[in-house]
Design a protein that fits this description.
Blueprint (H helix, E strand, L loop, with lengths): L3 H10 L4 H4 L15 E2 L2 H13 L2 H8 L35 E5 L3 E5 L11 H6 L6 E4 L11 E4 L2 E2 L10 E4 L1 E3 L3 E3 L5 H9 L5 H11 L11 E2 L2 H19 L17 E4 L8 E4 L4 E4 L3 E4 L3 H5 L1 E2 L2 E2 H10 L17 H29 L4 E2 L1 H6 L31
Parallel strand pairs: 2-6
Antiparallel strand pairs: 1-3, 2-3, 4-5, 4-7, 8-9, 10-17, 11-14, 12-13, 13-14, 15-16
Length: about 400
């Protein structure tokens, strides 16, 4: 009898890559300066205020110039964002409204959506960002690392793995309003013919969440030819998607059953500097006295992109910053909202860990596969070059540098 690992190797050898199934992808955001993203919005506003109060060389030093951005750069407005377009060197206005984004695989943070502050903000992503969009994030490959090959977010993702490796960001739709799925032309029709019913673009994403396997060449997505296995995989992936989008698109926030929900058993200290886990007690110890329980082992051990998610989440909120830098502008004490976010993150990771055995059974329970060779014979692969480029989105004017209209 073949093992799951051996079967996975057999299947993925001729499995199509996500890069071909969802051809349009965008590189990760490149911030250029860490101070424009933070776990809390109040720190971003305080950093902005400190920047615009400074003058001359002091402002230049706080900004942190790179080859892509200096305080004197002339930069167009990010699509959909009502931010200034004058030079940062002359800026005296109010802080841009921070937006919620996904940092790495599971860390929801805040970003100043100002093109003047970000080296490579990927405007093409902002043009298709709306309340119906989903972003599929292919994690940067880390050899022998555990964790999901893909994550899905309703928030704009930065596309970087916890280990810092760049992945790829694939919007589900090429245009706002859930228009023009980012799927290889002909693929959904081919699958519908095999299964005997219509296949939606979101079904493909759900299947990929359940079946994807990471590899050095990219994320492989074995496609089953069995309608029953497809239905089971799509349902499994849909459960994972509902957990990962955390109530977006009209869904419910993820919750564990009553007796298993994590609670704060002892108040967290004002400035915690460590986190530890007791497997026997299923307890997370934060600082000297803070206690959160129950925390399932699967949540504590959950990894993504080469790092343990909970440890990395905590480190981003407690690691030191260079004194006098804008990154050093942080909350004076642990905010209550961070505790709420921690409890939800534990819930998300616990629920996803519980789905992993079902993913293994899915991959080991199917024999009929639709390989890349069959997709090439059907004319689905390779996708046309136009499918790899962003669609033209010209529905509204975008402000260019110094208040001029951008020419698209």
């Amino acid at each position: 009898m073949r093992t799951v690992t051996a079967l996975t190797e057999d299947v993925t050898e001729d499995a199509p890559l996500l890069d071909d199934l969802m051809p349009w992808s965008v590189a990760p955001l490149r911030l250029g300066r860490g101070w424009v993203m933070a776990p809390d919005a109040a720190s971003l506003r305080a950093r902005w205020d400190a920047l615009v109060r400074a003058e001359g060389a002091e402002r230049d030093a706080l900004f942190g110039s790179t080859r892509a951005r200096t305080p004197h750069s002339a930069v167009a407005q990010l699509p959909g964002q009502a931010t200034g377009t004058g030079r940062i060197a002359r800026e005296q206005g109010r802080c841009p409204e921070p937006v919620r984004v996904l940092h790495g695989a599971f860390d929801e943070q805040w970003l100043l959506p100002d093109h003047r502050l970000i080296d490579a903000a990927r405007p093409e992503l902002w043009r298709v960002r709306d309340e119906r969009q989903l972003f599929v994030v292919e994690q940067g490959h880390v050899p022998k690392a555990a964790g999901p090959a893909l994550v899905v977010s309703a928030l704009l993702p930065d596309g970087r793995s916890p280990a810092g490796r760049p992945g790829r960001i694939r919007p589900l739709y090429r245009r706002p309003g859930a228009l023009e799925p980012n799927v290889a032309p002909g693929l959904l029709d081919l699958l519908a013919g095999r299964y005997g019913h219509a296949v939606a673009a979101e079904d493909l994403v759900c299947w990929a969440l359940a079946s994807a396997v990471a590899g050095p060449a990219g994320c492989a997505v074995p496609l089953t030819g069995d309608a029953a296995v497809w239905a089971a995989g799509v349902e499994l992936g849909r459960r994972a998607l509902r957990v990962q989008v955390r109530g977006a698109h009209g869904g419910e926030r993820p919750r564990l059953p009553g007796g298993r929900r994590p609670y704060v058993r002892a108040a967290l200290p004002a400035r915690p500097d460590s986190v530890a886990y007791d497997a026997d007690e299923e307890t997370l110890t934060i600082g000297d006295a803070g206690r959160v329980a129950p925390v399932p082992r699967g949540a504590w051990e959950f990894e993504a992109g080469g790092g343990r998610v909970l440890e990395l989440w905590f480190a981003r909120r407690t690691d030191g910053a260079e004194p006098g830098s804008l990154e050093a502008v942080r909350p004076a004490s642990w905010p209550q909202e961070w505790t709420s976010e921690l409890l939800e993150l534990i819930t998300v990771l616990a629920l996803l860990a519980e789905l992993e055995p079902e993913r293994e059974r899915l991959r080991s329970g199917a024999e009929a596969w639709i390989g890349a060779a069959e997709l090439r014979a059907a004319g689905v692969l390779p996708p046309p070059g136009a499918a790899r480029r962003p669609a033209s989105v010209l529905d509204h004017a975008e402000e260019g540098p110094d208040g001029q209209f951008a020419l698209l």
